[in-house]
Amino acid sequence: MANLTSFIKYALLVIALSLLSGGANSVQARHLLDTSLPEIAVPQIPDGIIPSLPQVELPPLPEIPTLPMPELPTFPVPELPEVPGFPSIPSIPKDLPVPSVTTSNP
């Protein structure tokens, strides 16, 4: 892992120097990169060493119970005062029904 880290640092240094010098040495920098560090070998895994995994059938998910909605409190609606020069606001019923919330379990 240390070889990879030093390779990356070296590559960044070469690229930065190449950019600072106007890019004229980009072919030389690439040649330095190709020849100065040894190649990092990536191990190849032969066929048959890693067995194929069997297909596993998962059991169905359990049904999640739903809880009933609690009763929501009702609050009194205050009367709005009349404001001269503005149209009147229609009266709001004091006891508005609370909408029922239904949930469905998919």
Automatic annotation (TrEMBL):
It comes from Eucalyptus globulus (Tasmanian blue gum). Residues 87-106 are annotated as: Disordered. The keyword Signal applies. InterPro entries: PELPK1_2. It comes from the Eukaryota. This is Uncharacterized protein. Keywords: Signal. Residues 1-29 form the signal peptide.
